[in-house]
Design goal:
This protein is an alpha+beta fold. Helix content is 26%, strand content 31%. A seven-stranded mixed beta sheet has the order 1-2-7-6-3-4-5. Strand 4 and strand 5 form a beta hairpin.
Length: 127
């Protein structure tokens, strides 16, 4: 399943639809992220990212209002770490430990980009 999921995710290079998060109306996601959430059981990851948006949009680092780089790393013991950065060379704005996950991939990157519709979560390949 992991290999098939990676292969299928690689095909997303744009989006035709935007999906609005039910609890945070200004947080949307693309077709690729929607596919990831459905096929990897990762709606929890979207909830996590959406839950941080109000705080991140108030931070002094204004780069977080334009673009956020989220990274989920699954560890061998099935715990995970979710990190958000404003850029590769800066300390994390968010670092959350997840005690257990059945997320099927060893890692995933989701970029969140500001748009007139709100903050849009997308796969790197959809940017």
């Amino acid at each position: 399943m992991t290999n098939d999921l990676n292969i299928n995710l690689a095909h997303f290079t744009g989006t035709e639809h935007y999906y609005r998060h039910p609890l945070h109306g200004k947080f949307l996601h693309t077709d690729g992220v929607h596919y990831l959430a459905e096929h990897a059981g990762a709606y929890w990851l979207l909830d996590l990212i959406a839950s941080y948006q109000p705080d991140l949009l108030k931070r002094l680092d204004t780069r977080l209002r334009e673009m956020q780089f989220w990274h989920l790393q699954v560890h061998p013991n099935k715990s995970a770490t979710v990190i958000c950065r404003a850029d590769a060379d800066v300390p994390p704005a968010v670092c959350q430990h997840i005690e257990y996950t059945d997320f099927p991939l060893p890692e995933i990157d989701i970029w969140v980009v500001a748009d007139q519709m709100g903050m849009i979560a997308m796969l790197k390949s959809e940017y």
